Amino acid sequence: MTAPPIVPGPPGPAPADPGPAAPGPRAPKPLAHRIRRWIVVVMVASFAIAAVAGIAVLLGGATSEPASKVLGTTALTGVFSVAVLCGAALIGRPVQWFGWITVAVSAATLARMLWMIWVEPGWDEDPFKLTITMVILTGACAIASLLLLLVSHDRRSVRAALLTTLALLALGVLLTMLLIWEVAGDEDDVYLQATGIVWILAALGIVVLPVMSLLLRTPPPSRPVASDTGVQGPADATGLSRASLERIAAAARAEGVTPDELVERLLP
User: Fold this and answer.
1) Model pTM?
2) Helix pair 259-266, 242-255: axis angle to 10 deg
């Protein structure tokens, strides 16, 4: 006796589309990023307080010595806050050690200037030389910090121009320090001419280098086009899909940096 044939029933409902996966928890921001943020917050808050005090003095019409000290404090805080922010821009990058040096030198110079204003005005020869030396070092470190943002540029010519400009800047500072501390005679015309030429060439590099970095930047590769099947193929030889590249770009936009800078920060 044969078994009756099995008749297939109606097909069941298709499994529901799970939809896009829920985004996972955001990774904590790097320590360097948090430190840089706090430096910016502290310096902006300090300058804001000093600015409010200066405005109050001006509106009050005070012309006494304390009022002049408050205005001087406001101006100095603003100037040296910019120098600190230049150094903070390097934190989290390959040459962040120089950024820390710039922050320390700028803070020390600001403290020295405020000490001279409020506690002990030292306009004698040696204290004055020390103050001028610290001011020059602060300015040079701030400029060098901004230029070092180009240390990872993709063109060798830009990196070579960067090293040349930094060398001229350092040489100009050294020659000036020798003049200030009277190690080199200020009556030597050849020495003065050489110092002036070095500073002119350094200034030329400081102006031209950012323009070179913009004109000689290698354009980014074209983005891949999704296939008709909706499958995202690898974007390039790295094997990253278009979706991964878009996530990296979105994270970089959220941090206010380029995708290359984000990857360099997370994977030094």
Assistant:
1) 0.67
2) 90
